[in-house]
Amino acid sequence: MDFGSINPVLLVASVMVSATPILLAAIGETVVERSGVLNLGVEGMMITGAVVGFAVAVNTGDPASGFAAAALASAVLSLTFGVLTQIFLSNQVATGLGLTLVGLGLSSLIGKPYEGMKSPTLPKLDLGPLSDLPVVGRMLFSHDIMVYLALGIVALVWMFLKFTRAGLILRAAGENHDAAHALGYHVVRVRLMAIFFGGACAGLGGAYLSLVRVPQWTEGMTAGAGWIALAIVVFASWRPWRVLVGAYLFGGVTVLQLNLQAAGADVPVALLSASPYLVTILVLVIISARGAHAAPGSLGRPFHASQ
Amino acid sequence: MIALEKRPQPSRGWLVAAPLLAVVLTMLVGGAMFAALGVDPVEAIRTIFWDPLFNPQFASYSRPQLLVKAGPLILIAIGLSLGFRAGIWNIGAEGQYIMGAICGAGAGLAFYPSESLLIFPLMALAGALGGWAWAMIPALFKTRFGTNEILVSLMLVYVAESILASVSSGLLRNPEGMGFPGSRNLAQWDAAANRELLANTGMHWGVVAAFVSVILAYVLMSRHVLGFNIRLSGDAPRAARFAGVRPARIIIFCLGTAGALAGLAGLFEVAGPAGQISIDFNSGYGFTAIIVAFLGRLHPVGILLAGLLMALTYIGGELAQLMLGVPGASIQLFQGMLLFFLLGVDVFTNYRLRLGRREVA
């Protein structure tokens, strides 16, 4: 075993890359859950984003339009969930699971012809003198634009929820939908918009997997990333900055176990490859044992405005 | 203006009509999907739903397959439905299925090459225990710490898959298999094989267990106080607590039963149709069973019918792949759509449409 082969600078850099897909999906889901909707279809939306982004990027040769198409496709897919749960008042847990199953089927249907292809990938962003800094430049300032965009989305979501009127309305719909309705806000409309945003974010996260992180299309490539994103939202107690911490933590575990596998660590491979999931369970248990629940009051409850 | 109005009582007619309408809608939209893929939609639908049962050329092969595929689906879905009725969302049946298969096969292989009659019952017991133990993890976390069982049970699927990959190339690998991953073939070892009980029917012990579970679940849910408590916990959790129902017991019972049944399904599959533990012997039954449970309205008899229907789409899907070149994934999408449409039309069970102007509140 050779731990010397694990370079800490490269480790941090790759943590940022591997955390970005789950960060994007989790921050989108945070907004959805703060509006009072539990969308368990993140995995399905991510993988749809992954395949659509990949297909469009291959066909146009332009990764940017791949990302745009992925966001749009996943957002439209998430609207089927929105319509079913908000207008047809279906059970959110069951519909979210259905969304995941549909997304997995749809993606392998679309993706069949693209297996084994190579896509154009995002160039590293040139941040001028910042990228040339020793150590830090390599760690933090040598990434592609999506890594920074994801950080920007976290900041924007935080500002939106904390400082804007629209954010307040969204939180009101999530905390107590009957009160929000009585105040004259359109709970269903707010939630549909939140679901749309969550879908778009999950799509971006999926496209980041297939266009940058891997970069290839393979069936079922998200491998539970969407579910981990859902766990991170719980871990973060529904707060944007903690979502960032959670995503980087899980990115760290993923990268570390891959590095340990490559370094030939004396730990069973099965244990290493299961470690991101085991850590997720462990964190969930610790969070719930502490009793630190800050779940939005109306999370997962259907809303029907009876006159 | 069209508005939804809550019914005073759920409509009994819609309870039965909704799944049928969902099937029809899925056929229509699925047909459009096949047309978009360049396959004649009528031909595709007929190949999926009609040919496996009545085509003179294939039916003799595919009819027994119906029970082979429906058995595990029904067995798992019955277990899941108990929890879903109580508002306990075990979506990790796939993991419990895998662990049941590993434990059951492991218990049997420990006695290879014994020909004792006790081997198969021992394997079934170990399989049920394996699935039960795997489901106890989310159950205990839920009762002890209030941890979300949806996420924990799902994460454990990926852990189970890692374990499966590990044992099939390590602990349980066939010592005479020239180093290839995968265990000894249980179906070729008389004491452990899950044989077809009646020739050319597809009836094996797993199917028998599925039918028995349907009957037991029916009695439990409609005639026993535990079933009543389960339904009460789902419909009115606060009322259930006031009535003295202990939520922890319901959680342990529902998750444990679901795990044990999924584990049994895994063992019967690995000792019969699949034959051996291999990296990819699991074929997603644990997830499809969720669709089966909902399509069957979480009712034992409904699940029996839904399991047969879903098995039909599997077999018909394979046939359509073979005959018409339909991509395999389109069947998966087809099954997902079925769940979506069911959830959509289900609104009419509890609500009715009211036409006319909305009055001012």
From TrEMBL, chain A:
Pfam families (alphabetical): BPD_transp_2
Location within or outside the cell: Cell membrane
Main location, first listed in the record: membrane
UniProt cross-references to InterPro entries, sorted A to Z: ABC_transp_permease
Gene Ontology molecular function: any one: transmembrane transporter activity
Its membrane topology: Multi-pass membrane protein
CDD domains assigned to the protein according to its UniProt record, in alphabetical order: TM_PBP1_transp_TpRbsC_like (cd06580)
Keywords of this entry: Cell membrane, Membrane, Transmembrane, Transmembrane helix
Membrane-spanning segments: 6-25, 37-58, 64-84, 96-114, 140-161, 192-211, 217-236, 243-263, 269-289
GO (cellular component) term, any one: plasma membrane
UniProt entry tagged with the keyword Amino-acid biosynthesis: no
Keyword Transmembrane helix among UniProt keywords: yes
Protein name, per record: Branched-chain amino acid transport system / permease component
Lineage: Bacteria, Pseudomonadati, Pseudomonadota, Alphaproteobacteria, Rhodobacterales
TrEMBL record, chain B:
Record's keyword annotation contains Transmembrane: yes
InterPro entries named among the record's database cross-references: ABC_transp_permease
Cellular component, GO annotation: plasma membrane
Domain of life: Bacteria
Transmembrane segments: 68-88, 95-112, 118-141, 150-172, 203-221, 250-271, 329-348
Compartments, record wording: Cell membrane
Protein name (Swiss-Prot/TrEMBL): Branched-chain amino acid transport system / permease component
Organism: Roseivivax jejudonensis
